[in-house]
Design brief:
Length: 53
């Protein structure tokens, strides 16, 4: 658990009380937000997140 997702993209993720990420958005329509989600996937060191197109 690195926190990369919620530190870099707080518009998409937040940290819970134990430091685990919570996904805030499950249906992204905005192109910029889609780009941010793909960036979060690319930098996640645990390969723990993905996006569906
Ligand atoms: S989902 Fe990936 S980037 Fe986010 S806290 Fe977990 S390991 Fe880190």
């Amino acid at each position: 658990m690195s926190g990369e997702c919620y530190y870099n993209h707080p518009e998409l993720f937040k940290m819970d009380d134990e430091g685990y990420p919570i996904v805030l958005v499950d249906d992204i329509q905005d192109d910029a937000m889609k780009k941010h989600a793909r960036e979060a996937v690319e930098v996640c060191p645990a390969v723990a997140i993905s996006v569906e197109s």
